[in-house]
Amino acid sequence: MPKNYQHVLSLVFTVKEINENPKILPNVSFGFQIYDSFLNAKMTQQNTLKLLSMWEKITPNFKCDKQKNLIAVIGGLNSETSLHMATILGIYKIPQIANCVFAPVMNVKTQLPSFYRMVPNEAYQYAGIVHLLMHFKWTWIGILAADDDNGNKFMQTLIPKLAQHGICTALSEKTPDISQAIDNLSSFKFILSKAVSLTMSKVKILIVNAEFQTMTCLMWMIYFYGLVEDVRETSIGKVWIMTAQWEFSSETLHRAFNNHVFHGALSFAIHSNEVLGFREFLLVLHRNSQKGDDFLRIFWEEAFNCSFSDSNVDKHTNGTCTGQEKVESLPGALFEMSMTGQSYSIYNAVQAIAHVLHKMNTSKLKFRGIFNTGRMDPPHLKPWQLNPFLRSISFNNTAGDTVSFDENGELAAGFDIINWVTFPNQSFLRVKVGRLEPQASPGQKFSMNEESITWHSMFDQMLPLAVCNDNCHPGYRRKKKEGAPFCCYDCTLCPEGKISDWKDMDDCYKCPEDQFPNKDQNQCLPKLLNFLSFSEPLGIILTFLAVSFSLITTLVLGIFIKNQNTPIVKANNRDLTFSLLFSILLCFYCSVLFIGRPHTVTCYLRQTAFGIIFSVAVSCILAKTITVVLAFMATKPGSRMRKWVGKKLTNVILLSCSIIQVSICAVWLCTAPPFPDVDMYSLAEEIVVECNEGSVFMFYCVLGYLGLLAIVSFTVAFQARKLPDSFNEARFITFSMLMFCSVWLSFVPSYLSTKGKHMVAVEIFSILASSAGLLGCIFFPKCYIIILRPDLNSKHHLIRRN
């Protein structure tokens, strides 16, 4: 991997920078020795033992004058390498500063007390992945990891965290060892089948545990798929989310791979900053620039695909290396001129060791003798003495970042979120689009700049969707789909009276009391006030009828007053006739109390005035009917009824019947009077402004007593309808009371079945209809005689008829 050579150069550059800095250990020079682990446990342990031994051979625990002056070890780009080193170095309590994103053991602080990581805790990366998915509302994703302990740990940790936040893992694939497929046809077919299932999957968001093995296998899988299926790699439209191990590197064996497949990918990255002088350090790099660097020759031949004339390795190249090739001409997948996150961690690790030694030299007298000779003498300086200082170290590096370890010996920092933009010439651009800062305040831990993100061309620069099914639109709610993951659901319409005003709501909710759902059930609208107004058509018609009937009643009353001395007016008690006309007039006026917005006074007067006035009217009719009956009975010879005929009886009937109703209304007003109220629930889209009856029982007592008077009056009038009298009103009273009872019997079910202003309109109509019935049936025949047939309005006609 030519790109990993930058880690070596980062170490060389940092040591050179420290040695040239007179402010840090001016009398001490740093040296270093580098070994390659080859990602192999045996080689890793062997090279670790070499660090602890003589120059020539491995002799652990044997000290001599040629013993290397080892004070700390920097290394371990993955957890396996770090653990293999730590098991040996931990015996000697030698500090090891690793760069592995994932810790080699669960409890690092307890199990590996001399182990440090110049990277943040991996738990922050898991949290960052969840934050990222939730930010874009991606709930249908896939996970890709290697088929090893690290891959298993990655999936076992991440999948439950995703499920806790409502994110489904639709695809979880483990990549096999790619080396097995090179010479094994069956393994090759297996890897190809994995590639087909991965690329053909409808899952658009893939989270990759981007370790070396996983990424190598992934690139070969995509490459094989393109060869077999004859599909361009750029047509595989996925959003790749990579962990922080990824540095967008390519193997030299796979130069034909088109890295545009990762265009628009997002990755977490160890925070890095521009280190002054590093680019200039790389620009002067050439074949012979680093003496004693055995890696440079290998890097040069691999990166530039050439070979030196004295090379002993026989391989196909593009020519002979001159040693003057320019590293800045290499594509970024092979080598970058800016310091990567892992190289930046190595840079900070070397800086940390230097600052610890500087602090030891300046803080306590017992350490100062160690540095007087210009070199750190092993008998005086023990590596384990660095550990207390490393745990508490905090400094600002030359790039301006603060470097310190937390209580677990891990870098106290977060992760950057990088958007990768690729170009046809195999170059790419890193764009920092977000930040995960665990030490920040709760609302500032995760930040994302969506406008800076470049998505894969398959998405036309639109935000990719990653859901199991289409969103439920407002007005609908989610319903679990049987047999499917919890991210898959059906959309059902909100029940009547409820709304949902956002996508993918789990449940609908009711509007506030003063609002109602619109037709689409996705918004609440304010309810209108519902009361019978004078300005609306129904209120205008009823008011017009009430006034018209009042004027007609007044006209009739005027006619009767003018002709009060005529026989037809004097018959059947003239005073009762005037009282009845006046009460009917008040009945028409009382209907107007029911129109308009209810107030306290109108609520008090509505039902009580209606009950009392109608009771007076019906009492007058009852008195008139009884007068007719008694008058007929008194004409019989020897009848004792004559003494009952007269004004006294009629006044007693009128007053006693009316006083009972007045008493009922008085009790009603004193105990539970009516009051203005609002009804939020009777009508779905309106607020009913009404008069609450206070006591429903008393209201029906008033109606019941009025009905009792009406029935008694109707019964008496019906019995007296055939009495032989020229001006007998019994027949007219019978018809009027029949109409009166019919109106009020139909009123009860109509009143109970209507709501709001229509309920009030029913009562007004009943008042007007019953009052008009009384007026028409009793008085219009008499007005006909008075106005049109005055010849019948005479005593002679009365005697002749008798």
What does this structure look like?
This protein is an alpha/beta fold and 802 residues long. It folds into four domains: 2-121 and 341-404, Response regulator (Rossmann fold); 122-273 and 415-459, Response regulator (Rossmann fold), CATH 3.40.50.2300; 476-526, no CATH class; 537-801, Up-down Bundle (Rhopdopsin 7-helix transmembrane proteins). It is 44% helix and 12% strand. The chain is built from 23 helices and 22 strands. The chain has an eight-stranded mixed beta sheet with strand order 5-4-6-7-8-11-12-13, with helices on both faces. A three-stranded parallel beta sheet has the order 1-2-3, with helices on both faces. Strands 20-22-21 form a three-stranded mixed beta sheet. Strand 1 (73-74), helix 3 and strand 2 form a beta-alpha-beta unit. The chain is rod-shaped and about 160 Å long. The chain starts with a helix and ends with a helix. 39% of the residues are buried.
What is the gist of this entry?
The chain has 802 residues and is α/β, with parallel strands linked by helices. The chain is 44% helix and 12% strand.
Mean pLDDT: 85
CATH class of the largest domain: Mainly Alpha
The CATH level-2 architecture of the largest domain is identified as: Up-down Bundle
Provide the low-confidence segments as ranges: none
The dominant shape is rod-shaped
- Domain module count: 4
What's the end-to-end separation, in Å?
136 Å
Could you give the count of β-strands? 22
